[in-house]
Amino acid sequence: MPDSTVPTTHPAPRILQRPYLWVTIGTCALVFLAAFESLAVTTIMPLVSRELNGAGLYALAFAGPLATGVIGMVAAGNWSDRRGPRAPLYASVGLFVVGLLIAGTSASMPMLVAGRLVQGLGGGALTVALYVLVARIYPGVLHPKIFAAFSAAWVIPSLVGPFAAGIVAQVFSWHWVFLGVVGLVIPALLMIAPVLRGMDQRPMDAATVPWAAGRLAWAALAAIAVLALNLSAGVRVPGVPAATALLAIAAVVLALLAVRPLVPRGTLTARRGLPSVILARGLASAGFFGAEVYLPYLLIEQYAFSPTFAGLTLTGGALAWAGASAVQGRLGTRLSHRRAVLTGALMVLGAVLLALATTSLHWPAAVAIAGWIFAGGGMGLLYPRLSVMTLALSTKDNEGFNSSAMSISDSLGGALALATTGIVFAAFTTTTGSFAGVFALAAVLATAAAFVAPRVIAKAS
């Protein structure tokens, strides 16, 4: 007979056990499909542009969704704070599907860009709605694990997405790269539907969280600034040789002014606590993605890699991201938030510096390729932890605002970095100088992320 004085221990909850099993599968599937679509479009867009005679709108097909996504993030965050994540999640998936249908049935490049804009609006809102859903459904102890799963769901498509999209486009048509995803989004949403039906819509206290029309206007202005920065590289004004630089600076200043009301007060000045959490996310994204998109280009131009092989060199970083996300999730509180974020930021910085040294000193390509494994591992450490910290530092009334702020920082950080590195790349007259300039700028951004990392924890009073 068991001793009744011994306390009964309950097994720790897991994200792949009831009652979280189907919610975990459904949410991770939505993240996976959004990531797959993003990477797949990169593969097929040259074919689409050639078939639709849309070279002039090529850049906008990428910049547009990123810009409208900012508006979707703010709207979904405000809506979630008022009524909970159910309605915003349904609406965001609906917009994402409509955008896919428009793009997938496009007969002209303007129509495809219009579909991409709608798709970006829904994708941005989807990210925020899912973060609020996590806050409402999962206990805090499971947040590191579910965000690690999200990171893995985002990284895995980088291993299969470009190849699968190429096969679909060659065997069937590029249209099915968009339309095929529609048939997978609906089942993923149905897995989450039972939990959403029972979720509180908070009708009694919604009035305490007003509609933030002002924030939506600022989001629209930030989106316009991002688009303007992306387009400024092609602007030439006779008699004004510095026109591109002046327009770029104006766009960056406008974006920073517009983003201030969309993030917690003190974010742009790296105030300790939540503001630095949000800022670190944006700087890390800027440093990492600002360098990553140029690494395959470097390998093709200076080391004569084939495009396929050059793209595959990023696989190590993708696997390291997924692996580090899983490790930090298992370690839980044994790895402090501050150490995880700082270590991750330093790993990204080290990898970018190796890429800079490789192109400047003509080191073997293997140095930059191996270094990028550390970059992926660094992002795997800090990304999930910053997500966990954002929710831990939020209340039920501002989960939506803070989740949207984190997503906006993430998106704008990467967008501004990519646009700026494009301008830097075009400013040099030699290939080596162009790549060195890009990696140097990315290193400055990664250094800033490492500087902000220790400030994610507020000083003890």
Describe the structure concisely:
This protein is an all-alpha fold. The chain has three domains: 14-197, MFS general substrate transporter like domains (Growth Hormone, Chain: A, Up-down Bundle); 214-262; 266-461, MFS general substrate transporter like domains (Growth Hormone, Chain: A, Up-down Bundle). It has helices at 21-51, 58-83, 86-104, 109-137, 143-155, 157-171, 175-197, 213-232, 243-259, 274-292, 295-303, 307-312, 315-331, 337-361, 365-392, 399-427, 431-452.
Provide the residue-averaged pLDDT: 81
CATH uppermost class of the largest domain: Mainly Alpha
Biggest β-sheet strands, sense, barrel? none
**Which residues form runs of ≥5 with pLDDT under 50?**
1-8
CATH T-level fold name of the largest domain: Growth Hormone, Chain: A
Number of helices: 17
| SSE string, helices as H and strands as E | HHHHHHHHHHHHHHHHH
Which short descriptors sum up this protein?
single chain; 461 residues; Growth Hormone, Chain: A; 3 domains; 17 helices; globular
Write the layout of secondary structure elements.
Blueprint: H1 21-51, H2 58-83, H3 86-104, H4 109-137, H5 143-155, H6 157-171, H7 175-197, H8 213-232, H9 243-259, H10 274-292, H11 295-303, H12 307-312, H13 315-331, H14 337-361, H15 365-392, H16 399-427, H17 431-452
Helix pairs in contact: 1-4, 1-5, 1-6, 1-7, 2-3, 2-4, 2-8, 2-16, 3-4, 3-7, 4-16, 5-13, 5-15, 8-9, 8-16, 9-16, 10-14, 10-15, 10-16, 10-17, 13-15, 14-15, 14-17, 16-17
